[in-house]
Design goal:
This protein is of the alpha+beta class. It folds into five domains: 50 residues, no CATH class; 177 residues, no CATH class; 153 residues, no CATH class; 82 residues, no CATH class; 91 residues, no CATH class. 38% of the residues lie in helices and 20% in strands. It contains 23 helices and 21 strands. The radius of gyration is 34 Å and the shape is elongated.
């Protein structure tokens, strides 16, 4: 039973029982956990005290292995911006595989050429049998690692233990420290092939599970390539692991542990960024030329897809690659799920690659996704290889389908109604594509489903919308829109105006919606969805509120607000006002007030010009990044009628 004061009690056995169990081989002793037994009258000597310390150090090391090994916080490694032979290691702490703790209390600048460990510490710490080459002339791959060491210091007087002995001086303290060391990575490639060796080592570590050059008593932080002492490249996540759950297998099925999979993704992302900087952002990259294995999910260059014919050149031609549009807030869950799959082995032959399926994801904002689902016949399309004419790399089914396509005469459609045009526009706006490996599942469609409509109080909603329109004196214009709208368009229009951001928000927003729909050729559901997309961005309305808070008379100036509505750029003004600092926002209010006080077409032109110039100047800061953080909360456009699908057997 555990006791608060003494801790957990261990069962004590006598000597006879111990010998009997040892003879039967049913008891195991641990010499590392041997501590002195104190009793009155025992002589306290240095050997007993050291044994006491060794006991607790061994237990501490065992406890340190419970959570696994890796970096707990900090300890990032980067190349010095001005010194070619120097790296910077950030402050932090972590645990080695043997359970030792390594700590850097402050950021450390390490000159690799000046570190004497290459000849002294390697041999002293048992990392190499023979001293390494000169620190000024190292070439090859090295692992930057931290190692827990200790040394003695603080000399004090030692009293003699015998009557005839003289007094002496002895170090009185054991001081723990952390040593930076370079571990040569053993591989068979030539020293000049540093870039190719990086790809091979990535395959060995992330695909084959190699742990070469990583002793249990060191914490690897990064791998670097040295060419006669100069750093050619530094890869942080090749050997760095974040401390986390360290199961070797997921459910015992051979899936690599999560820290290794996460490190592979981050290592690939870093190497791909370096490759794009070297070749250019728009360069067409073939993955097999620069990588030997890819993580099951990761970023994909936009240049990997040709927007003219929607062909891809990043993956091998034998792989089945498909492009799909997804809401950006679902991207993290899709990537997390794909990381459980095996990596993409690019060294397989063409026959083996045909069984691999890859899905390329194009994330779009949630409010944009609904409009695209209505304007496109399907949200996914196949991406053929970029060189389908090469017979050696062309699949038979693809060759047959191309022969059939040659006999079909496709009518030329206007660009404005072509689905390919919509795909090209979206592909031109996206900043980052993502890919993930797909599962190969064979199943029968035995799941059935039925739809259940979820209805809101329709008459109450319509009454509130009608009252809102009447209060703004837009009844005649609104009735004209309903008269020329389709049935689906009328439902979408009522649903749009019933949204809280329009029903209870700024009056100018409702006027702008009506003005935009009056410009449409036909008020159908697609036209209303296009307007809905502009007025349903996350945070819409916050910018207009900031404008009114900056100048209370701004919202009450009917001429300025009317000119803003006539410009057709009210959503752009709102987005601009949400992101501008206070000083620039104040200047924007003054310029809009001065330009929009007149009641003539020239005032509308001036207001439009001001908005376009301000938006163009602030555009780099207004672009949203792809799904690193979830979007801000925004009013949801609640439809009058919803539908939920129930799935069952």
């Amino acid at each position: 039973m555990d006791k608060i004061t003494t801790g957990p009690a261990r069962e004590k056995i006598d000597l006879a029982e111990l010998r009997r169990w040892q003879g039967q081989g049913t008891i195991i002793t641990d010499d590392r956990r041997r501590r002195p037994l104190w009793f009155d009258g025992r002589f306290l000597d240095a050997q007993a005290m050291n044994a006491e310390q060794d006991y607790f150090l061994a237990r501490q090391s065992d406890y340190g292995r419970v959570a696994g090994f890796g970096v707990i916080t900090g300890l990032g490694v980067r190349v010095h911006a001005e010194r070619a032979r120097t790296v910077i290691i950030e402050a932090g702490h972590g645990l080695t595989p043997s359970g030792g703790q390594v700590v850097l209390p402050e950021t450390l600048t390490v000159d690799l050429a000046a570190v004497a460990e290459g000849r002294r510490l390697d041999a002293g710490f048992g990392l190499a049998r023979m001293p390494g080459p000169s620190p000024f002339n190292r070439s090859g791959l090295y692992i930057v690692a931290l190692r827990a060491v200790e040394y003695t210091g603080n000399p004090i007087a030692a009293y003699p233990t015998r009557i005839d002995a003289a007094r002496s001086v002895h170090d009185g303290s054991l001081i723990e420290a952390t040593a930076v060391t370079l571990i040569p990575y053993p591989d068979q490639a030539a020293a000049s092939e540093l870039l190719q060796r990086r790809n091979q080592v990535a395959r060995e570590i992330f695909f084959e599970g190699s742990v070469k050059g990583q002793p249990d008593d060191v914490l690897p932080l990064a791998m670097l390539a040295l060419d006669h002492g100069l750093i050619r490249w530094l890869d942080t996540f090749m050997v760095r692991r974040e401390i986390a759950q360290r199961e070797r297998l997921v459910w015992g099925l051979g899936v690599a542990p999560r820290p290794l999979r996460a490190a592979h993704l981050r290592q690939y992302s870093g190497q791909l960024s370096e490759l794009q900087q070297q070749l250019g952002v728009g360069a067409r990259i073939n993955a097999a030329d620069h990588f030997r294995v890819l993580p099951p999910a990761g970023p994909l260059p936009v240049s990997g897809i040709n927007g003219s014919d929607f062909s891809q050149n990043f993956f091998p031609a034998e792989m089945a690659v498909e492009l799909s549009i997804v809401p950006e807030d679902e991207l993290p869950a899709l990537l997390e799920d794909a990381l459980l799959l095996p990596p993409l082995d690019l060294e397989l032959d063409g026959t083996a690659q045909e069984s691999t399926s890859v899905l390329v994801l194009m994330p779009v904002p949630r409010h944009r996704f609904r409009a695209l689902s209505q304007s496109l016949p399907t949200l996914s399309r196949e991406l053929p290889p970029a060189l389908p004419g090469m017979i050696a790399r062309r699949r038979p089914i693809l060759a047959l389908s191309q022969l059939l396509h040659r006999r079909d005469l496709q009518p030329v459609q206007p660009a404005e109604v072509s689905a390919d045009t919509v795909w090209r526009n979206e592909l031109g706006q996206v900043e980052q594509l993502w890919y993930l490996r797909r599962r190969n599942l064979h199943y029968q469609a035995e799941v059935t489903s039925w739809s259940v409509e979820l209805r809101a109080p329709e008459r109450q909603v319509e009454a509130e919308v009608a009252q809102r329109i009447a209060d703004l004196q837009l009844k005649t214009r609104f009735n004209a829109l309903l008269a020329g709208a389709t049935a689906a368009g009328s439902a979408e229009l009522i649903s749009l105006l019933a949204a809280p951001v329009l029903l209870k928000g700024p009056d100018a927003a409702v006027r702008a919606v009506v003005a935009d729909l009056e410009k449409a050729e036909s008020v159908d559901s697609l036209a209303v969805l296009k307007v809905t997309e502009r007025f349903s961005e996350p945070g819409f309305g916050e910018g207009l509120v900031r404008l009114e808070e900056q100048d209370p008379t701004f919202g009450g100036n009917t001429r300025v607000m009317d000119n803003l509505v006539k410009s057709g750029l009210l959503p752009e003004v709102d987005r601009l006002s949400r992101n501008l600092p206070e000083s620039e926002l104040k200047a924007l209010v003054a310029e809009l007030t001065e330009a929009g006080t007149a009641n003539d077409p020239a005032a509308v032109t001036k207001v439009t010009k001001i908005i376009e110039e301000k938006t163009a100047a602030a555009d780099p800061g207004l672009k949203t990044t792809p799904v690193v953080m979830p979007p801000r909360s925004a009013p949801v456009l609640s439809p009058v009628v919803g539908r939920v699908t129930i799935i069952g057997r």
